[in-house]
Every structure is written in structure tokens, then in C-alpha cells.
């Protein structure tokens, strides 16, 4: 399946959430990761994310599209690179 | 169709992009908007967004899902509210 995950978490947890998502998905932009992933790995990823976040203040949205052909992505402007942002 | 739009734009243009997207879609989180929209309105929205952004430094990603039933959204933690963030 294809997933998009967006996060809005406290400053102290941004690095941990970002690092964890990067183990499973591709960084897309700002606080957005995306990519193809199996249901099993997705459950594992979200379990790990849930153990990092503070559910009273942090927010994670997971969008799942079972068939990647059902979603189309278009970019406007520049394509952001993870390395530009974080290295 | 159902769309998700994420943006990563220069500070000077964040307010304009956010305001424009709010005319067409629902604010979701951080720099993410989403919602159902017709193809005609989406083209109009993206035309207007393109006239605001600086394509050399800004980045907009548009994810389109033709059938809203093909996408499933799950929230973890709190649901963010536009009013909490901006009002």
C-alpha cells in the first residue's frame, strides 16, 4: 500500500519521529513522509511512533491508499531533498 | 476527487499560500490542507497558488485521489484545529 504520514509534534520529539519514519518511508517535505509499505511494517512503524509521541499534544495523520495507482502526485516549484534539509 | 496539498514555502509567502488554500480546502495540520474538490476548482486553486509561490525556492506537493473511498485517514494523538493555530 501507499501511505502519506504528516506530523505536528513538540520540538523535543521532532527528531525522534523524523528518524523513525525515515527507517520506513521516504521523506517528502517539511513534516511529511510517504512511500510504499506493507501492512505489517506499517503497523510496526505506527506502534513505534506511538511510543515516541505525547498523545495529548502531538498529532500524526496517516493516509493510506491501498492501490498506489489510485494516487497521483504533482510537484509545483522545487523538489525538496532530505539531505538539503538535514545534512 | 479528494486531494492533499502540502507546502514548504518561504516565510513571506506562507500566509498568502495558507489563506488561498483555505478558500478551497480544509486545513489539516501544519502545512497540510485536504478535502474534496472538483477538477475545475482544483485547477483554479493551483493556478492561483502558482502565481503566489517562488518556483525557485518554494515547493508544493499535490496528491490526488479520484475516488475518496480509496483513501483512509487515521489520526494518532490530538486532532489539530485551525482556530487553535491561527486565531
From TrEMBL, chains A, B:
Domain of life: Bacteria
Enzyme Commission no: 3.1.-.-
Gene3D superfamilies associated with the record: 3.30.70.240
Cofactor or coenzyme needed: Mg(2+)
Function recorded in the entry: CRISPR (clustered regularly interspaced short palindromic repeat), is an adaptive immune system that provides protection against mobile genetic elements (viruses, transposable elements and conjugative plasmids). CRISPR clusters contain sequences complementary to antecedent mobile elements and target invading nucleic acids. CRISPR clusters are transcribed and processed into CRISPR RNA (crRNA). Functions as a ssRNA-specific endoribonuclease. Involved in the integration of spacer DNA into the CRISPR cassette.
Family stated for the protein in its record: Belongs to the CRISPR-associated endoribonuclease Cas2 protein family.
PANTHER family given in the database record: CRISPR-ASSOCIATED ENDORIBONUCLEASE CAS2 (PTHR34405:SF1)
Subunit structure: Homodimer, forms a heterotetramer with a Cas1 homodimer.
Protein name in UniProt: CRISPR-associated endoribonuclease Cas2
Species assigned in the record: Lentibacillus salinarum
Gene: cas2
